[in-house]
UniProtKB/TrEMBL annotation:
InterPro entries in UniProt: WD-F-box_domain-protein, WD40/YVTN_repeat-like_dom_sf, WD40_PAC1, WD40_repeat_CS, WD40_repeat_dom_sf, WD40_rpt
Organism ancestry: Eukaryota, Sar, Rhizaria, Retaria, Foraminifera
Name listed for the protein in its UniProt record: WD-40 repeat-containing protein
UniProt keyword Transcription regulation present: no
Provenance organism: Reticulomyxa filosa
A Pfam short name: WD40
């Protein structure tokens, strides 16, 4: 059975590092090695914004929950906040001492959390651009970070093979999930903040129960290194892509594949998912963006 159908495919003029979708599924943001952030309109396939300011490669860029702002992070050690309406930079967040690997808004859009090669996790106030807290605990580079839905918890992943769970108010680490396998590349919380997925260099996706701290599922069908993996909002499904060119949709309960969306000759660079889980975008090394639409509801 097919759950997602390819709606369109189009080329970008430059090779990008990451791709993310706006909450309403109408725009794409791309981060690039040429220090720029590009915003594309999906309908017209044209650039509608190009943001300049970073002095080195941009590692990641993501929309705010209301779709009006973008946060970007860079090898230049800074995080920048951009206003989509005025097309101007709003804030520069300075504090990390090494490349910033990821930055993300809280669900209310008032705060940003960031991870860095300097091993720290930092919390920022969007309105004044000031650092609120520096969370220290990882012993190696922090590769990814995310707020919980209620904004009270942050999860982070490190190259020391740990996923750390933090209480925002106190700044205290409340749990550590230890993976004895290969180096963790990234993490993501489920839409209900009950589970966390991690993906690692051993080509495996792990699903963890946050309450118990236990690993409950393992998806191990990828034959190549996993580049990105995300929960599909509102469902018991995960979308993943690999440098072997495969884009896959997984059933968490059975640990089996729902659908192989594409088998591509070029390796995947990233995926983005709309807030309602009905739209997926994928980006490949040949500079191709593919847009997928949900055609069959996934039963939980």
């Amino acid at each position: 059975m097919r759950y997602f159908k390819l709606l369109k495919a189009f080329q970008t003029s430059t090779e990008e590092n990451s791709i993310n979708l706006s909450p309403d599924g109408t725009k794409i943001v791309l981060s690039s090695s040429d220090n720029l952030i590009r915003v594309l309109d999906i309908k017209t396939e044209h650039e509608i914004n190009v943001f300049k300011g970073h002095s080195k490669q941009v590692n990641d860029a993501e929309f705010s929950p209301d779709g009006n702002m973008i946060v970007s992070c860079s090898v230049d050690k800074t995080i920048r906040v951009w206003d989509l309406n005025s097309k101007q930079g709003m804030k520069i967040l300075i504090g990390h001492s090494d490349s910033v690997t990821r930055a993300q808004f809280s669900s209310d859009g008032n705060f940003i959390v960031s991870s860095s090669l300097d091993t720290t996790i930092r919390l920022w106030d969007v309105n004044n651009g000031k650092e609120i807290k520096c969370l220290e605990g990882h012993t190696k580079s922090a590769q990814g970070v995310q707020f919980s839905l209620n904004g009270q918890t942050v999860i982070s992943a490190s190259m020391n093979n740990t996923i750390e769970i933090w209480d925002i108010k106190s700044g205290v680490k409340t749990n550590v999930l230890k993976d004895n396998g290969a180096t963790i590349i990234g993490v993501q919380l489920s839409w209900d903040s009950l589970f966390v997925l991690s993906y690692s260099k051993d080509k495996v996706i792990q699903v963890w129960d946050i309450a118990s701290g236990k690993k409950i599922k393992q998806l191990a069908e990828h034959k190549n290194r996993i580049i990105n993996a995300k929960f599909l909002p509102g469902s018991q499904a995960i979308v993943s892509c690999s440098d072997g060119g495969k884009l896959r949709l997984w059933d968490i309960k059975t640990e089996q594949e729902y659908q192989e969306l594409i088998r591509h000759s070029n390796f995947a660079k990233g995926i983005g998912i709309s807030a309602d889980g009905c739209t997926i975008v994928s980006y490949y090394a040949d500079k191709t963006i593919r847009l997928w639409k949900l055609i069959t509801k996934i039963c939980n």
